[in-house]
Amino acid sequence: DADVTQTPRNRITKTGKRIMLECSQTKGHDRMYWYRQDPGLGLRLIYYSFDVKDINKGEISDGYSVSRQAQAKFSLSLESAIPNQTALYFCATSDPIAGGPKTQYFGPGTRLLVL
Amino acid sequence: GIQVEQSPPDLILQEGANSTLRCNFSDSVNNLQWFHQNPWGQLINLFYIPSGTKQNGRLSATTVATERYSLLYISSSQTTDSGVYFCAAADRGSTLGRLYFGRGTQLTVWP
Q1: Beta carbons of B33 and A40 less than 8 Å apart
Q2: For the segment A17-76, what is each residue's pLDDT rounded down to a tens digit?
Q3: In this predicted model, what pLDDT tens digit does every residue of B43-58 receive, in sequence order?
Q4: What's the DSSP call for residue A72?
Q5: Contacts (Cβ under 8 Å, ≥6 apart) of A28
Q6: What are phi and psi of A49, to 5 degrees?
Q7: Of B16, B17, B33, B46, which one's alpha carbon is 20 to 30 angstroms from that of B96?
Q8: How many whole angstroms separate alpha carbon B88 and alpha carbon B103?
Q9: Rounded distance, CA A72 to CA A26, Å?
Q10: Helix, strand, coil percentages for chain A (3-state, nearest 5)
Q11: Which residues of chain A neighbour B102 with C-beta distances below 8 Å?
């Protein structure tokens, strides 16, 4: 969805470098998520946030940190990148109103290569 | 968390053929989505379908929540349908809303 944008779209970095992936949304959603996809696998959850003051770890949070700068912005950082963090990273948003649809909307993804 | 299993893992079709992709999930869900991942890696929302049946053009989906499975039907397939189809579900018993993904079905449609 164009309402969820990610920057950069592609990134090559070296082992040990700190990098940040950014996600912005114009959907006005409170909930935001970071997922990671490895080749041949589905997506796995890294971190999620229900509002600016709420940050939670997902199943594979080691080596990552996040920042929710505003309702619309959720950034993922790799403090010291390592090669097995090479993957496709997705940001997602949702706004599960009680009784309403709980659809998650995904950004276009960021391809990260760690050398 | 919920276990999501998709079948078949790979599917090869001739253009014009019909196909059915299956998704089994291990627990009650309050969200079930089907996605198409195109060759550029983008995830395209196909359906939000925790229960019932929906249709969108040549694609339709049915989820039988009581039996914990969902089916995605593709009719008159086209080469542009190629890619990976993912099913993802969220646990009804949790308020987190996080999606658990299957491993996908790799669909290749030949002209």
Answers
A1: no
A2: 999 999 999 988 889 999 999 988 889 999 999 888 899 999 999 999 999 999 999 999
A3: 999 999 999 999 999 9
A4: T
A5: A71, A72, A95
A6: -145, 130
A7: B46
A8: 9
A9: 7
A10: 5, 55, 45
A11: 42
Strand, helix or coil for residue B81: helix
* A72: exposed, middle or buried (Cβ count in 10 Å: 0-12, 13-18, 19+): middle
Task: Mutation target for B interface from A6, A10, A23, A37: give the one with most B CBs within 10 A.
Answer: A37
As beta bridge partners, residue B62 has B53, B71
Mean pLDDT in residue range B81-95: 88
Closest CA to A109 of A40, A13, A52, A38: A38
Provide the edge-to-edge strand list for the sheet that holds B59-64.
Answer: B4-7, B19-25, B69-74, B59-64, B52-56
**Cβ–Cβ contact B32 with A under 8 A:** no
Please answer whether residues B29 and B77 qualify as being in contact, where contact means their C-beta atoms are separated by less than 8 angstroms: no
Is B86 in contact with A42 (Cβ distance < 8 A)? yes
Q: How far apart are CA B48 and CA A108, in angstroms?
A: 18
**Nearest by Cα to A18 from A86, A66, A79, A63:** A79
